[in-house]
Structures are given as structure tokens and as C-alpha cells.
Amino acid sequence: MTTLLNHLKGTRLAAGLSQQTLAGLAGISRQAYSALESSSSNPSTEVALRLARALKTSVDHLFSLPEAAPRQMRAELIDQPGNEDGIPLGQPSGRVQLVQVGDRLLARPVSGTGSTRQSLIRAEGVALSEPGIDNLVEVQPFDDMDSDTTSLGLLGCDPAGALMEPALNRHGINLVLSEEGSHQALAGLARGEAHVAGCHLRDEETGEFNFPWVFRLVPFPCTLITFASWQQGFIVSPANPLDIHGAEDLVRSEIRIINRRSGSGSRSLLDRLLLRSGVPSDAVTGYSREAGGHLSVASTVASG
What we know:
Blueprint: E1 5-6, H1 8-15, H2 19-26, H3 30-37, H4 45-54, H5 59-62, E2 63-64, E3 73-77, E4 95-101, E5 104-109, E6 125-127, E7 136-141, E8 150-156, H6 165-170, E9 173-179, H7 182-190, E10 196-197, H8 211-217, E11 259-260, H9 265-277, E12 290-291, H10 294-302
């Protein structure tokens, strides 16, 4: 039986009544009243009504149900590159996004610079425990997960991916977008950690984009969709004040760069350009400094 919370003592003292007097007004013994005030027992409906009348208040003010324990569920934690500088899971800041992929409930961290986009990311819950050997964590959802809502897990680094969110929401689909480089996105798709992976990877042997990498990394049939076409190059300050036009310019002492992570299409492109220009990567200031996505790179350049 659930023991009710009560505000009997404070209300009684405010009314200037002793336990004995209030017990008499309620038609019960002082011992029975003392048990109620100490939450050792619950009142009958009749006694609760008498107490409320004697104290000139409502039953709801005197008695209430304790808050239900927060609902918890088990989810598989999906580690992300760059989350090592985030706040450890198990802390109140260990926020996660939840996405159902097949029969797996996956929890993706949204703490740390490596797992953020250039906007605030909505989280569906908080991880309460460190992952065990099975990589499962206890997750407390912020709200009841609507069983009628479908989640679409998307891995990739295309800034335009978030533009799909309003259209998906209109169809009752919740977009869970996680910023990953192309290689990592395809690998995550192959592991069953998402429904969709974005990529822009060039195959060195054939010169073809995407198809060879998908066939190489994803072990099951899938459909390739051309979502967007873009041109790649160096992100520079307005008017290109340092006059950067090619990879060979990056060795100049006044130039420092911010790089993308290994496995991303942009990182692969830069490595090809450096190799073609005969520039060793360790001659480029900032080569080992990495950012998670295109917008993070642009923001860093804009900040100087």
C-alpha cells in the first residue's frame, strides 16, 4: 500500500491546535492521529474529510500521492568520436538522444563538442549509469516516448540534413541527426546504428564517388539517393586576405588550418591535395586540429 504524503503538522500548528484537540474533532484517538501525522498510516475517506473540515482546508492540501519514480529503460550506448571531452555519463549532463533501429533502442550522447551541431540539440533522456560490458545503460526519458512516433536515425555531416526535419515532423517522424564523417556514417549504418547514412567519398581506384565505398563497407543491400550536390574547397575569411588558392599555400608560416576528422570526405580530399602538391601533413600548422562538421569548421574560421 502506498503511504500518502501529508501536510498535517504544519497545517495543525498554523491553526493553533494540539494533536489531542484535532484528533477529537476528527473522531479518532490521539494515537491514531499521531500515526497519520508521522505517515505511519493512511486515513480513511471519512477521517480525511473530517480533518480537512476541522482545519478549514481541502483534502488535496492535507494529503497527496508521492511522485512516481521516474521511468527508466535500457538502451545501447553508441559511442561517438569526440565525446571524450564531454561530461561523463551518469551525471545530470549525460543527455542522450534515443532512436529505435529495428529491435535495438540506441542512446546517442549529446554532450561534448564532438557530438554537437551548430545549434542546440534536443535530448530525449539522460543516461543514469556507466555502460556495462554489454554497453547497455539505464536511461531516464524526459517524457513518455510516444509509441506512435517513428524515429529516423541519420548519420552524416551534411549541414542540409537538418532541413529535412520540419517535413519529417509533419509526417510524425522524429529526426535523430548525429554528426559523423562519411566513413564513420557508413560504418555506423553497417553496424545497424542508424537508418540512413550520408556520405561523399571518392574512390581512388575508380574516381567514382560513394558507390564503391557503400559496397565496400555496408554488408547488406541498400539504396543510394542523391540528396544534394556541392562543391568543396577551402573555407577562408571574407575576401581571402591570406591569398590561399591551393594546398601548396598551406605551408606558409602565417597560415593555420582547422581540419576535419579522419574518415570524412573533406579530410580525404585535403590529403589527396597535399599528396598531389608534395606537401607533408606535418608541414601544415593545425593539420592535427580537428572539428566535427562543416559548420564547426566555418565557425572556427569566422572567429579567427
